[in-house]
Amino acid sequence: MQSKGNASQKNSKNSNVKKKLIPYLFILPFIISFVLFFAIPAIYSLRLSFLNYKGYGQAKFVGLGNYSSLLEYSAFWKAVKNTFFYFLTHLVPVMLGAFLIALVMQGKAMMRMQKVFKPVIFLPQIVPVMATALTFRIIFAKNTGAINQILGTNAAWLENPATMRWCVVLMVVWRSIGWFMVIFLAGLTTISKDINEAAIIDGANNVQIVTKITVPLMKPIFLFAFVMDAIGSFKIYTEPNIMIAGTSTLTTDAAPIMNIITTNIRGGNFGMASAAGWLLFLLILIISVMEMLLLRDKGTDKG
Amino acid sequence: MKNKTVKKALAILLGCTMAFSMVACGPDNEGGENKAEKTEDSTDTGTGEKTKLIGMCWGSTETYSKLSDAILAENAELGDKYEIEWVLGGEGDGEVAEKIRLALSANEYMADIAVLNYTQIPEFAEEGVLNDLSENIKTYESDLTPAALNLSKYKAQTIAVPFEVKSKVWYYRQDIFDECGVDTAAVKNTDDLIAAGKKIQEKYPNSYIWNFGKPTAGYDFYMTLSGNGAKFCDDEGNYCLSKDEGVRKMLEDYKKLVDAGVVMDVADWSTDWEAAFADESIVSTLGAGWLGQDSFLPTYAEGQKGKWNCTTWPEIGGTTAGSDAGGSVMVVPTFSRHPEAAAEFISYMCLSEQGSLSCYDITACLPINVKAQENDLLNEKVENGFFGDSIINAQLAALDNLAIFNYTPKAASEQDIVTEYFTKAIYGEMSIDDALKACDNDLSTAIGNAYQ
What stretch of H or E contains A44? Predict the structure, then answer.
């Protein structure tokens, strides 16, 4: 009897261990790839950021030298300014535009047309960014560009420091709206219709429903969208480089932080490139945390 | 309890993996044994098997493959010993340099031959990662132009085989110049060039004699800087552009051209640039020999065959001498598996009379070998060309004046920084003084010292 009891105890212990191990086994492929392709390279790049190293030969330890050089480098601060410009100027039109389009799509009037409009608005996201940038480069070209041909002007959209970044923003907005519209649409479907109906019975109008019910309930979705957008915006690279510079070097008047990284890699300054990468990471982290603090659901936190 | 054990085990496993990888990926501070240095070498054809050489180039492998096939077909001895495969390193020479760095970093083999611009040579030569080619160059030395010999050397080392000498050539529309009464032989300096541009604009108000984009292509500046003895730093590697007369003179003359309105503000390789040749907005351009290849002007300005002509540059920035990056060269990195075979092959391909002629036949680049330069094939081929025989004559004339810029091991990073300030200076967005001071400041901050 006792041996039977021991055996069943052993079996249940074994099954407990298995139960605990199985989830880890499921996530093991991710953990291995995360460690191999992200964690190790990231730690290695942190180490590189303290070295003067071109990938071969002698590596010289320079302490915080690469960081201090970057902070004294005028092109770095211009790049920070440009990156913030791209981030801030596209944020409102993309988020507001995508949210409004999602609201319209969800409305009764558009229910039938959703199948047509949704893919059309999402389409720019499917087009490779390289192709889009080249197309916009042609559209904004000075002498042969479509915009100048239509307007009958000869404006140097992509050469003038005052307009070149706005052209990039326009393209980013055009590309991003569809993506965030889909995210917001998914978020809107999670809001129960009962709540809206209750609000209507209580006499709320459409604006009140959106501002007092939809927006507060969409906060977690907004948080996700804002954080994802911040990460993407701070890593912007292809759009300005292909659209403004083409095959030459992008002017610092429009170059984002990623250019500091790629320029240093191209020049064999891996230490400086890594330092710039870590400063960019810090910047994204700070912005993301700020967005999380601003958009967190305080009621839920307290609860 | 079990849960804690599993977590501990996972943590230890992760820690070990990271520590192992850090050691494995770590830079070779000790200058340890280079795996790639172990060559399988070399001309081991005793078994009858051919030695396979890998070459890395940029742009496209097509021309190089055609060329090496032609060489192996015409030279039975080489054909019996070697087979060549060309791989693409990237769109530009900088990407090939990046690949070399990565291969050196990983201590791994990548290719036996690499095509580079001379711009990158100082970096790799200073690090001693290019094989010595002095014996191979010596074989052909008496048949090489001084320009080609210069391209094969860096300081006291002979580490490169010149493939394409990029001398300066002035391309212009002969028909329009004739119509406007402009004689290029009378255009001796910057002021004459401006006067010529103005004369053309009297009849063709929307036509220009050159183009500087925003940003202007780096080679536009370096073609002049290479000739007038400009230097970005002193012998100790401290940046001092603001004190260099050559840089200042180049900027002053380029600014003069911009201010006179004879230069179009369109960037090279842009849609507008290509269209400007076709619609006759650009009726002349000062470039290097490679711009005469079939894939460039003859493509953009199709239908203008026979209307273009070539000559040497007038004196701009105080010089008629110079080059675009000196030229492109082939090197044998230390990670090559067959260094001797690679050196033998590229020397024959680029430097011998027959090899040089094949190069010309396939790439239209000026032959490196002087005997090949006198060969009738040169005249036979150009008869059907876009520029007639003027391009060869202009290149040959410019060859005596070919000079290479004082590139430092940090040349790639330097170019990225100075090009923008130079563009701002010539367009008057900054004064020349401020631009040069800003260059010094940024170069010192971002790079530090040119030689360390």
Answer: helix A40-48
Mark whether B264 and B364 lie in a shared domain: no
Which residues does B178 contact at the CB level (< 8 Å), separation at least 6?
none
Find the largest Cα–Cα distance for chain B. Answer: 96
User: What strand order describes the sheet that includes B113-117?
Assistant: B82-90, B51-58, B113-117, B327-331, B161-165
Give SS3 for B89: strand
Q: Which helix (H) or strand (E) holds A234?
A: helix A219-234
> What's the CA gap between B84 and B112, in Å, rounded?
10
The identity of residue A193, as a single letter, is K
Instruction: Specify whether the CB–CB gap between A171 and A243 falls below 8 A.
Output: yes
For B173, the 3-state DSSP assignment is strand
List Cα–Cα distances, B226 to A201, B165, B218, B327, in angstroms. Answer: 81, 14, 12, 12
3-state class of B451 per DSSP? coil
- Per-residue model confidence as pLDDT tens for chain B (452 residues): 455 665 666 566 555 555 544 444 444 443 334 444 445 554 444 556 889 999 999 988 998 999 999 999 988 889 999 999 999 998 888 889 989 998 998 889 999 999 999 999 999 999 999 999 999 999 998 888 888 888 999 988 999 999 988 899 999 999 999 999 999 999 999 999 999 999 999 999 999 999 998 889 999 999 999 999 999 999 899 999 999 999 999 999 999 999 999 999 998 888 889 899 999 999 999 998 888 877 788 888 888 888 999 999 999 999 999 999 888 999 999 999 999 999 999 999 999 988 988 888 888 788 888 888 888 777 666 555 688 778 888 888 888 888 999 999 999 889 989 999 999 999 999 999 999 999 999 999 999 899 88
- Cβ–Cβ < 8 Å for B360, B378: yes
Interface check A61 vs B, CB under 8 A? no
Handedness of CA A91, A93, A96, A101 (dihedral sign): negative
| Facing residue for A144 by CB, picked from B265, B271, B416 | B271
Angle between helical axes of A270-295 and A257-266 (0-180°, round to 10): 160
Residues ≥6 apart with Cβ < 8 Å to A201: none
Q: Which of residues 235-254 of A touch B (CB under 8 A)?
A: 245-249, 251-252
Measure the CA–CA gap between B12 and A248, rounded to whole angstroms.
48
What would you report as the CA-atom Rg of chain A, rounded to the nearest whole angstrom?
26
Strand partners, B282: B208
CB contacts of A31 in chain B (<8 Å) are 10, 14
Topology, domain A76-302: MetI-like fold (1.10.3720)
Same domain, yes or no, for B115 and B260? no
The nearest CA of chain A is from the CA of B20 a distance in Å of: 10
Report residue A239 as tokens: 């759009």
Asked if residues A59 and A47 have their Cβ atoms less than 8 Å apart, the reply is no
Closest Cα in chain B, distance from residue A268 (Å): 7
Q: Are residues B161 and B117 in the same domain?
A: yes
Start-to-end CA distance of chain B, whole Å, equals 56
Looking at the fold, whether B295 and B441 belong to one and the same domain comes out as yes
Residue B4 lies in a domain: no
Per the listing, tokens 């190069």 go with B359
Domain of B178?
Answer: 168-322+405-446
Distance CA A86, CA A278 (A): 20
Domain borders along chain A are 2-48, 76-302
Rounded Cα–Cα distance for residues A14 and B331 (Å) = 63
Q: Are A103 and A210 in contact (CB under 8 A)?
A: yes
Number of domains in chain B: 2
- Chain B nearest-CA distance from A214, in A, is 42
C-alpha–C-alpha distance, residues A252 and B421, integer Å: 10
Residue B242: give its domain's CATH number. Answer: 3.40.190.10
The interface predicted TM-score of the complex, written ipTM, equals 0.74
Same domain assignment for residues B366 and B350: yes
